[in-house]
Design brief:
Blueprint: E1 4-12, H1 16-31, E2 35-36, E3 40-42, E4 52-61, H2 65-78, E5 94-100, H3 114-117, H4 119-128, H5 141-146, E6 155-157
Length: about 160
Amino acid sequence: MTMTQVYLGIGSNIDREKNIRDGLLEIQSCYGELTVSPVYETEAFGFEGDDFYNLVVGLKTDLPIHELAHDLREIEFQFGRSRNETRYSSRTLDVDLLLFGDEANDKYHVPRSDITEFGFVLKPLSDIAPNLKHPATGETMTQLWNKFDSSREVMRQIPEQLSL
């Protein structure tokens, strides 16, 4: 059985601490051990709303990408996500598949463009996987973060970890 290293972006701006902690517990119960990044607080992007907590988790799975993507949507639905929300809106729990091994898959949007577009995705990913190479650019997450223009985002690390 081949295990694939996967990275997920997780965010919430509705009862964010509880939803993220409970979401992490649900993901852990499905996939086992998680590598959890520090949590970053950022302003809502693209709409007026409460600040988000964002983090990245790493896990290993033997599921094919389509099953994992389906499972992640189901976890979001468990936390009150609806199928027809607008793109930029408040979220109880947002779970995005960022990387599925070194696979490039347009249907499942991996590697997810958010990695190089948003500091709140790239910074926590570089925290837990600094030497991981981006499948498209070949640069490490640290290299990508070091050249990232973070001046357009207000982002601060939350001092306490959300413990599982």
